[in-house]
Structures are given as C-alpha cells and as structure tokens.
C-alpha cells in the first residue's frame, strides 16, 4: 500500500475526511516544470566520489545560492543530504540564480548517474520550477 493511500484510509477511519481532501488539493496545485538539465561542475573536487554508491537517479538535491562566491557571483552550490557535490556550471547558472534571488521555488534532482572517466559526465542535474 502506498503511504498516501494508507494515510487516507486511516484518516477516513478516524473521521478526518477533510485531511485527505486538503492533501489532494495541495498536491494538485503543485506543478513542476523542468527548466534545466546540466552536468555537475566540480564533481572531482567535492564529496561526490565518496558518496557515489549511495546516490541514485531521482534523488533530491539542494540548491544553495552563493552570491559572495569569489569565483562566480551567480554560483549555485549543489548538496545531497548535507554533503557538497559541486555546482551548476558557471556558463549555465544565470537564469536559475536570478530565479532563486527573486524567491522563486526551484527543486533539483539527480537526472542521471554514469560511471565515466570524465568528471563532467558523472552526474546530470535536473532543475525544476515549482508552481
């Protein structure tokens, strides 16, 4: 049984019929649009290699703006479960940086993992606009 269905069943048994409706309304109102796919920059310099066996496609990533980054004012760091993996590439981060600065809700996920000698080909990041 899917967790969501389990919660709906328990709520209906307890007379909390309004709870599933609220949950369904919130889920229906949330839409995600893929706005960017890019490689992970800096994979070889951070914790990605040590965490490789624990990660899988679809895992949620955290986008962290670093406007004071001395190398790139548009820097967006990518973390997985509190571990720094790398960055959105400098040549591809302007739009996402602007959206984050404006308070737009973005989510990121691992799009693809590939065993490859070139660190730029190890991980693909997907950035989603949440509306």
Question: What keywords describe this structure?
Answer:
single chain, 131 residues, alpha+beta, Alpha-Beta Plaits, six-stranded antiparallel sheet
The helix content is 25-40%
Strand content: 25-35%
Number of domains: 2
Flag low-confidence runs: 13-17
Shape: globular
Radius of gyration, in angstroms, nearest whole number? 18 Å
> Tally of extended strands?
6
Counting helices, strands and paired strands, the structural category is alpha+beta
Distance between the termini: 28 Å
Mean pLDDT: 86
What is the count of helical runs? 4
The ordered H/E elements are: HHEHEEEHEE
At the fold tier of CATH, the topology name of the largest domain is Alpha-Beta Plaits
Describe this structure in words.
It is built from four helices and six strands; from the N terminus they run ααβαβββαββ. With 131 residues, the chain is of the alpha+beta class. The chain has two domains: 1-30; 31-130, Alpha-Beta Plaits. Mean pLDDT is 86; it is low at 13-17. The protein has helices at 3-13, 18-29, 48-51, 94-101, and strands at 32-39, 60-65, 76-80, 83-87, 106-113, 123-130.
């Amino acid at each position: 049984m899917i967790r969501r269905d389990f919660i709906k069943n328990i709520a209906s048994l307890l007379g909390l019929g309004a709870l599933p409706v609220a949950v369904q309304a919130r889920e229906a109102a949330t839409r995600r649009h893929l706005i960017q796919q890019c490689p992970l920059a800096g994979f070889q310099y951070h914790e990605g290699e040590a965490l490789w066996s624990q990660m899988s496609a679809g895992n949620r990533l955290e986008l962290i703006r670093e406007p004071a980054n001395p190398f790139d004012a548009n820097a967006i760091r990518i973390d997985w479960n509190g571990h720094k993996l790398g960055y959105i590439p400098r040549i591809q981060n302007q739009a996402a940086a602007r959206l984050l600065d404006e308070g737009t809700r973005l989510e990121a996920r691992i799009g693809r993992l590939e065993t490859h000698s070139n660190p730029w080909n190890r991980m693909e990041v997907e950035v989603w606009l949440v509306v």
